[in-house]
Amino acid sequence: xxxxxxxxxxxxxxxxxxxxxxxxxxxxxxxxxxxxxxxxxxxxxxxxxxxxxxxxxxxxxxxxxxxxxxxxxxxxxxxxxxxxxxxxxxxxxxxxxxxxxxxxxxxxxxxxxxxxxxxxxxxxxxxxxxxxxxxxxxxxxxxxxxxxxxxxxxxxxxxxxxxxxxxxxx
Length: 170
What we know:
Elements: H1 5-8, H2 10-13, E1 26-32, E2 37-43, E3 46-48, H3 52-63, E4 75-85, E5 88-97, E6 108-110, E7 116-119, E8 124-126, E9 132-133, E10 137-140, E11 146-150, E12 160-162, H4 164-169
Antiparallel strand pairs: 1-2, 1-11, 2-5, 3-12, 4-5, 6-7, 7-10, 8-11, 9-10
């Protein structure tokens, strides 16, 4: 899951370098080039058996943090929310950036022709028409918004446990 590391653990990775046993069943990324914002929504935050306490502890530790880790110095936090909806624990983060170069930490690369690219994987579903599929990457026009969803592949024997019940106990 190297190509989606920054998205699957987005909320946590922006605020801590600690390993926290949390995964999302899917993640949606929306890049608004007009407003220069990035919105990342993580759905159904889950963990594996016997890791619920560590996962909740880690999420609570980052819930009130407002300082981003040093590697994310090119983006600014606008908002962050961890919430239960439809019996699922979700997270949403909104960031602003100044230049398309600033989002390289999220896996985007600026190309010499003014487009930008993102690693192509069969776990990524484009939700906008601003994306050309190449052999190993998606190419995007720099003046158009993009939206895509990442759904991680899990091993068949991995049983995820929703964190919504434990989060609601607070």
